[in-house]
Amino acid sequence: MNDKKKLTSLLIIYTGGTIGMVRDPVTRILHPFPFDNIVDEIPELKKTGYQLSSFTFDPPLDSSNINPEVWVKIVAIIEENYHHFDGFVVLHGTDTMAYSASALSFMLENLGKPVIFTGSQLPIGSLRTDAKENLVTAIQIAAALKDCVPVVPEVTVFFQNRLYRGNRTTKHNAEEFKAFQSYNYPYLAETGVHVRFNYSEILSCNHCDDLITHKNLDSNVAILKLYPGISQKVASAMLNVEGLRGLVLETFGAGTAPNEPWFLEVIDKAVKRGMVILNVTQCAEGRVEMDMYETSIELEKRGVISGYDITTEAALTKLMYLLGRYSSNNEIIRDLNKSLRGEITV
Ligand code: ASP
């Protein structure tokens, strides 16, 4: 009888980001550095006792260069390797990590294994780096089981002692190690001496369905952030971009916008042409309540959809996903009003 226990196997997907950057000795500018095998670069990883494999993007990307094509590539790697690994850790630049984690949450339906994004504020080779702690703990969380099933079968972000639902995160600090925040949803785990999971907040995987991947994203979307003094010229230029199908309208407070006739008319015409407009608050915390003020109810009357407590990152990527998936606005609007992957509290 073979009583050898199968080792937990994890795939580390290195897309780039500061974690793997080096400083040019002459210009002092940071640029991505291609690891051949990240496990060889960080000997500490061998001590985890897991079977670690890696996939490296060539060239690795500063995350400012991440786009939907890269999301499709990450999803394809996960899909191809889904049955060979127990979990996935995606190393990614912090700048657009919240967008990528949000996008993947929608692109991976019926996810039953952990997909954990992490990165660092300082490169792995620098003395005070936060990379090792982030990476090693992300690996441990990806491997965590309870009653033989993964504890966190979701797309998440692990950074500085906290695990967050990916589509609830925002990068909120450009220099502190604690770079991410999930303003409208509790963290899923906190790590200190122990890893403490917030079990009741984690999406449970009680389905036996197979993973479904959605790789058709529609990039004909935009974000319009309102500001006092926005001109008719600017607003109508945005709302009349040729081919634009979806717009994240970043409004004030609980979802308010100017109720000047010219503004409402631009909105009205766009909705009548078939544009899907999602109302997302500019506030980091709290939610849109479109029936609260006369400056928001006018938007509702014209067919603008409430984003509830969604982040801008999740709103944009949810629109890309739904517009890529459905041609009828009825289905898109139905799903915008639903929590698909825990991205909103309705
Ligand atoms: N510019 C880097 C990136 O997002 C920053 C980082 O990784 O923290 O790729």
Please describe the topology of this protein.
Layout: E1 9-16, E2 21-23, E3 30-32, H1 38-41, E4 51-61, H2 68-81, E5 87-91, H3 97-107, E6 108-109, E7 115-118, H4 131-143, E8 145-146, E9 149-150, E10 155-159, E11 162-165, E12 170-171, E13 180-181, E14 189-191, E15 195-197, E16 212-213, E17 221-225, H5 232-239, E18 246-251, H6 261-272, E19 276-281, H7 294-301, E20 305-306, H8 312-325, H9 329-336
Helix pairs in contact: 2-3, 3-8, 5-6, 8-9
What does this structure look like?
With 346 residues, this protein is α/β, with parallel strands linked by helices. The protein has helices at residues 38-41, 68-81, 97-107, 131-143, 232-239, 261-272, 294-301, 312-325, 329-336, and strands spanning 9-16, 21-23, 30-32, 51-61, 87-91, 108-109, 115-118, 145-146, 149-150, 155-159, 162-165, 170-171, 180-181, 189-191, 195-197, 212-213, 221-225, 246-251, 276-281, 305-306. The strands form 6 sheets. Strands 4-1-5-7-10-11-14-15 form an 8-stranded mixed β-sheet, with helices on both faces. β10 (155-159) and β11 (162-165) form a beta hairpin. α8 runs antiparallel to α9. The radius of gyration is 21 Å and the shape is globular. The termini are far apart. The structure holds aspartic acid (ASP). Aspartic acid (ASP) is lined by residues 16-18, 62-64, 93-95, 119, 121. Aspartic acid (ASP) binds at residues 16-18, 62-64, 93-95, 119, 121.
